[in-house]
Amino acid sequence: MLRDVATLMLETRMRPEEVYRILPEDVHLDKNSLFNPYGKTKAAKRWIRLTATAQAVLRKRMDERKGAYLFPHADDAKRPVPKVNDAHEDAVRDSKIAPCPLYDLRHTWATRAVEAGVDLVTLAAMLGHSRIQMVLRYAHPTQEHQTRAMEKMERYVSQQQIEAAARQQVISEITIQ
Question: Rounded to the nearest 5°, which phi and psi values hold at 36?
């Protein structure tokens, strides 16, 4: 279960409790989407486009479903699993990686989105945030990404200078004639 929860968080940007509460009727594999009717804010209730990996996980969970939820409670299939934090902490400890909260997978998704060029307004909507300021807590561009952004900016400024010089040359030639 932990692997599927983690995969969906990383592939869909969903919060853990949003993943736990997925119902089959909210999954639309034929449309590559999932509707999230829950959330902390009105903006959290949103359609989520699915990657092929997320679709595969959801298809498997739907095929194996034994209750109302795709991630059912161990003792009552009519309720969603309350959390997988203990399983996550055990997996982190056993793998000997640096401690990290499960929620960091959502931050990883946001950072990848920014590095792929997703603008902050769109990113806020995709994450289900009602305020753009919340995005700043999620996206953590790497130093490499910041370096590439600066190089992009330098190329843009250089191109603008070249175009301005070319326009000035044309004006000078017209004036001389």
Answer: -105, 105
Q: How far apart are CA 10 and CA 81, in angstroms?
A: 19
Domain assignment present for residue 123? The answer is no
22: phi then psi, degrees, rounded to nearest 5: -65, 130
User: Is 17 contained in some domain?
Assistant: yes
Residue 52 is part of which domain span? 2-105
Q: Could you tell me the pTM of the whole model?
A: 0.69
Per-residue pLDDT of the chain (177 residues; tens, 9 = 90+): 878 988 998 898 888 888 889 999 999 999 999 998 987 777 778 888 999 999 999 999 999 888 888 888 878 878 777 776 665 575 656 677 776 676 778 888 888 888 888 888 888 888 888 777 777 776 666 777 677 776 776 887 788 888 888 888 877 777 776
Let me know if residue 92 belongs to a domain. Answer: yes
Q: Which of 52, 61, 49, 45 is nearest to 2 (CA)?
A: 61
